[in-house]
Specification:
6 copies of one chain form a homohexamer. Chain A is α+β, with helices and mostly antiparallel strands. Chain A is built from 10 helices and 7 strands. In chain A, the strands form 2 sheets. In chain A, strands 1-2-3-5-4 form a 5-stranded mixed β-barrel. In chain A, a hairpin with a 5-residue loop joins strand 1 and strand 2. The model of chain A has no long low-confidence stretch (mean pLDDT about 90). Chains in contact: A-B, A-C, A-D, A-F, B-C, B-D, B-E, C-E, C-F, D-E, D-F, E-F. At the A-F interface, helix 7 of A face strand 4 of F.
Chain lengths: ~300, ~300, ~300, ~300, ~300, ~300
Amino acid sequence: MDETVNLFLLIKSAEEKTTRNGKPYLAFTFQDTSGEMSANFWDASEEDVERYRPGTVVKLTGKREEYKGSPQLRINQIRPAQDGEPSNPELYVERAPIKKEKMIEQFNKAIFDITNANMNRIVRFIMNKYQKDFFQSPAAKTNHHAFLGGLAFHTISMLDIARSISDQYPFLDKSLLFSGLILHDVGKVIELSGPTATEYTLEGKLIGHIVIIHEEISKACQQLKIEEANEDVVLLKHMVLSHHGELEYGSPVRPQVPEAEALHYIDQIDARMNMLQAAMRKTEKGSFSERLWAMENRSFYKPNFTEK
Amino acid sequence: MDETVNLFLLIKSAEEKTTRNGKPYLAFTFQDTSGEMSANFWDASEEDVERYRPGTVVKLTGKREEYKGSPQLRINQIRPAQDGEPSNPELYVERAPIKKEKMIEQFNKAIFDITNANMNRIVRFIMNKYQKDFFQSPAAKTNHHAFLGGLAFHTISMLDIARSISDQYPFLDKSLLFSGLILHDVGKVIELSGPTATEYTLEGKLIGHIVIIHEEISKACQQLKIEEANEDVVLLKHMVLSHHGELEYGSPVRPQVPEAEALHYIDQIDARMNMLQAAMRKTEKGSFSERLWAMENRSFYKPNFTEK
Amino acid sequence: MDETVNLFLLIKSAEEKTTRNGKPYLAFTFQDTSGEMSANFWDASEEDVERYRPGTVVKLTGKREEYKGSPQLRINQIRPAQDGEPSNPELYVERAPIKKEKMIEQFNKAIFDITNANMNRIVRFIMNKYQKDFFQSPAAKTNHHAFLGGLAFHTISMLDIARSISDQYPFLDKSLLFSGLILHDVGKVIELSGPTATEYTLEGKLIGHIVIIHEEISKACQQLKIEEANEDVVLLKHMVLSHHGELEYGSPVRPQVPEAEALHYIDQIDARMNMLQAAMRKTEKGSFSERLWAMENRSFYKPNFTEK
Amino acid sequence: MDETVNLFLLIKSAEEKTTRNGKPYLAFTFQDTSGEMSANFWDASEEDVERYRPGTVVKLTGKREEYKGSPQLRINQIRPAQDGEPSNPELYVERAPIKKEKMIEQFNKAIFDITNANMNRIVRFIMNKYQKDFFQSPAAKTNHHAFLGGLAFHTISMLDIARSISDQYPFLDKSLLFSGLILHDVGKVIELSGPTATEYTLEGKLIGHIVIIHEEISKACQQLKIEEANEDVVLLKHMVLSHHGELEYGSPVRPQVPEAEALHYIDQIDARMNMLQAAMRKTEKGSFSERLWAMENRSFYKPNFTEK
Amino acid sequence: MDETVNLFLLIKSAEEKTTRNGKPYLAFTFQDTSGEMSANFWDASEEDVERYRPGTVVKLTGKREEYKGSPQLRINQIRPAQDGEPSNPELYVERAPIKKEKMIEQFNKAIFDITNANMNRIVRFIMNKYQKDFFQSPAAKTNHHAFLGGLAFHTISMLDIARSISDQYPFLDKSLLFSGLILHDVGKVIELSGPTATEYTLEGKLIGHIVIIHEEISKACQQLKIEEANEDVVLLKHMVLSHHGELEYGSPVRPQVPEAEALHYIDQIDARMNMLQAAMRKTEKGSFSERLWAMENRSFYKPNFTEK
Amino acid sequence: MDETVNLFLLIKSAEEKTTRNGKPYLAFTFQDTSGEMSANFWDASEEDVERYRPGTVVKLTGKREEYKGSPQLRINQIRPAQDGEPSNPELYVERAPIKKEKMIEQFNKAIFDITNANMNRIVRFIMNKYQKDFFQSPAAKTNHHAFLGGLAFHTISMLDIARSISDQYPFLDKSLLFSGLILHDVGKVIELSGPTATEYTLEGKLIGHIVIIHEEISKACQQLKIEEANEDVVLLKHMVLSHHGELEYGSPVRPQVPEAEALHYIDQIDARMNMLQAAMRKTEKGSFSERLWAMENRSFYKPNFTEK
């Protein structure tokens, strides 16, 4: 089952540890687009600790083994990737399955449907301001859409479902639904530290992406000279504030317009389908997935009968 | 504000009561497609009690008034509707906004997409068996889709959303999702007493529509000589059993395949949008709806800014 | 027990209703500094409805009676108060037990102790901007400190407890604790409609006072050219955002610095003591108060043994 | 404390693992009627893995040791049991303290008291169909009555308590109470994989024993030509469906007849007493048991003062 | 449906009220062993209020009517019962179905089985001290066994179930189980005001029957010179403290010996069966009972099929 | 990072363990006033086990190392402390930051303010009886004020806050508040085993400090011939019984007088500030503390900006 490997990998984390008898070593987690793997680097010197920091790409020769049921690497040789080798960290992180250009096109189409003038201007202002980070950021640290461009991809995917629902239920206001939807998670570009070694920032922890994007709407209004007491602005703010659906999930208010209720459920269904898709990919037919913490700790069955 | 009326109405309920000083009267709730209204029939004789039972259509002359903030009728004259008059109770109940034929067409299209042979046969068997009641039944006693044909209409509407989601997430098995979706609420034709004076039946209360439809799948298998231990049958049963999502909402098991999770959320979103649509219709612009019990007792705001 | 009265009163609310036999009347709630009382005005004409709106001061002759265990007035004569009579509505609302000037003095003393420059400037900016409303506003619609100036009084009272606790626990940062404390409820001047006929505004319902004050801090920074990414600004925002203590009480984040935890508990203890003080005032010795909804629906005992 | 042993044992589980430095070994759990014990088999070959599967009886020579507070075996020699040796796996599993014949007698006595004809026939039909498995099956995978014949023993023990309660409360219908009680857990013969290496089956996980037995009642009716809409059949189904007492414990309906409420509590009390009996057996006088997960994670004290 | 009556009744409560147009009246609740009924006494004078206090037996002539679905009496004549008439209030309250002498006999039998000397002495001491009240007191103000002697009857009935369970599970210590059981609710003689107009006393509200009986055990030890630190005394105290099973039901500790767990469940089952018996008595065959607040607000079905 | 040490330390716990290959060793936790550290003593003989029991002071030479992120000691030499060396265990436990004499002074001042005669006598009686233990005991096993004298120090600190609040809210009865406050945790001297190797006693587990102190008040009354049915005694008992605020936190009754509500919140705020103070002391500026289990598992941020 063990096999020799010769790979370029990105260091995701590198913890300094000590063995029972006092020798220092580095506990690595490596990453490439196919997933993660751990390895211990025995007898690490001070220079090694310095050299192999998270975010570094390395060339590694070793053996694939199993330890306590999980795969791990035994390191034979390791060195930092050199010029001329694939040393750009972004090559090693999972990314959205559609191109950025394609996504931008779809956003433009949706923004075109926002006929309310204030909402249209606010959405375009904020998307402009954060465009670069928005198309890089994952949608979460670990759970759903946790990959490069995941935030934008999650939003695009939600737009599709929103179109289907608002066709079915024409009493929903498309301007309000689409602008709330596009903005709802943009605060994550400030809440999270970015796509490679994703952590929560101080603002992320102490303020949270929900209030952060609310503040951005307020700032956009001031820049654009839009009166914030206007009902449409208040409602747009309400959309982003209430999108977690329940106070105990961090929304300071619960949805109080139908579009906000719709947004919450579209967010849920898309996040859940994405998590399940990822989990099923790693599960054998005829067996159950690992327990998924963000899905109320359930584990899901992958049938034999189906083609997929 | 008061006005004289001259109407045909359906008696929805008729309670015998006594005034403080001992005189009997009948407390009516009338119904037509535009809603409900109450009225008291003073000094009701034994014959009146007999004559004006729920389900009877009456001709009524009176005045529209308000009592404790709710509209009510003051009865001047009342008599049962006669032959030649619109005396069919079904004329007075709200009904699905699309025709039965149109709905059948859409079901057939969906059933066509169920390529798994066992599921396809089971779905067609059950739909055949309950076809008549299925297209009459409301989807609930009071909350969502509580009208003639509401059950079928709710199911059709969910199919639309399911198509959009399964396009987005092709790892979902369409056969399983569509057959589970079509069957999920069919048990309500046994749980509820029908479209006119909808009540829970004894089986509805003591067994519940979730287990009722499960039993119907089992019976279909026996009739069709399908082996119930087959994985696809077990999964189809699981779909209907788990569609309330959480044990505390009456599902004996939680969703454990992705299609079951999807079904639960599609059901939620469609039921909620339908309830909100109905509530918004009754709400003035710029004000809040009444509290909606089935929406966690929230009340929802109808904006001024929008056209709708 | 009944007695004839001859009073000036403020109309707190005036609902149009209809008797069972269709006659319109006005159901009043009157208010003066000693409390509230209800009365029905029979056979109210259209002009009466117009004349006796909430916020009007009236002269009333009638009789004090009891109806279903609550006191009510029987109206003999009623007319709007005239010039030269005590017709200013503010004379009829309960007010804070200390003078505004005295309160301002105490705020200044506290602000003096905020040695952190950014916090000091932000607090002074916001207090200046909302000074007038802040000293008028109640602290809540119904529960605690629901009187003219209640918001300022509640804040002053909390400052006193905060001083005692920060003397006891010198590791707490006084600048952070005091500035968070002073600002924590200022959003209520926007959330609530003011001291006389207190209702929630649309922003109050859809955004809430917690996020409103957060936005004000952000705006103050922009005006004062204070960098919002500074740790002290982030912490001050965190103080106001987390002051409800738990997500389910409407804080989008839970307290994550000791000063925020302290603020939450000081707020609780002061609000609860104020509610109990008011309830005890209305309770006979040796008996239990009415149930207090905001105190988990408990009712409290007033002992015989004590002097008070 | 360590001692040399020479034993026949049943392999309950055998996990393939790898040491830190890459060597394969087998982690065994052995079982006999006195309990369980673990042991590691170092340097296991492919043939060993094949030879020592769960369910095999082995002869083992080794030493009893302690590791991290739990007893474990150090293996000196191991080989599969041979013909003529005690190689029947059932000899090594705990079993009900009374004989099967004695239990059958008591069931017959109870069935005799079921005077309602439909219930009597349904109970006899199902007990006949599953008789063999019913007297083998444990009542649960780990918690209560987790031994060979545990399901039947649990049911017998509940019948005794039920007799005492129905003597005390003659308004309870004995036919309904006894037939619901006898059937309530029969679904476990399908939910669980049997007495030796008890696991949940796919049907057990996706459908659950509560709905499984409901389906069996329905099938019995079809075979016996009993009309399922009869009130007594509906009530019998209700008994098994509601026996977990609360929706969140997996019953799709809550008890709605007194006999169902009684059944739920009798089930609880018997399961709990059985778990406590087993836990107390393993606890020293004057000390607390380990934490019992199924008893809300409490730990229980075994007194010194008593004889037992 | 109305009928003339001529009855002796006990006044359970008598509230002074005022009609809308200011006239005083008395709202009575009457009681006899068959249940309760309400009536209004119009134009009550000050003397009437004085004369017809709760606890008085009256002779009443009037008519049985129905008001808002509940039966009530229309009073024609009323006067206090006179000497020579059945004027003893205790004649009008429901009472335990077995005689006090018979109950005492059963208690003695149980106490005889308490072989632990300390427990035996403590139980006898307390039962002696409160004997008179214990055989009078109801077991609760409204819910279960709310009748004269209900407390003793509830305890007797529990003893029967306890015998059955301890026969089944001989590891349970009979001394501990029986003494805890007999004492568990004795505190109610102090918590409640007695059998006729049952209310909570101040000690009942502020301390509660659980802690009250704990204190009585402590006092008994002091009188009997029993060392309170003895393990058997600590355990007996633990039995009464933990008998509500969960902290949120008012037990300061959860059961931590098997006998305490048993006691809690026996208490539950007996209280629930008693409430259901009373509710079923008032329910028609083929219909549902009123909602039972203490049974999680469920309503229970009374079948047609059974004889009872 | 490792360093050689030469220290006197107190053995807090000493567990006998076995290595994988069967060799016995002792796993120590050592303690001095600066905190705790663990170490393994390899190849411990039977005599060593006997010699190095918890509570012993030892002299140790070794090296400070890190293992799995936590500091631990490598033992070179170890021997029990000898006469003439600092061998008194109390020297090694953390203690209250103010002297016992100073604390007594403050208690006397508070008791002086208890003007109610019964309360004053009861408080003095109990404080006298337990004075020695009270000034030794920690306030909890692990969470807040878990040090020598912590119980007294916690009480003193609460008195200070109580003074501030009762100045603010003069309707509170100082006698009731102060006597309840002083006694509220005295039961911990029986619940916990004392300041050096703090464990729960059997009474602590089965009865709990809340009911223990209630019993002490009852005993004090008997000794002092104070009538227990007096309202002031009932209220004092209520204060201690209700001080955990909610049933689910172990109070058998919820606060029902304002003084009891105040006590609960003062207890909370002081315990929380103390835990935070201790946690902040161990946290670096600009980083988050470890998760604090008793603070709802939150972790707290220590800012950079502040001096402290």
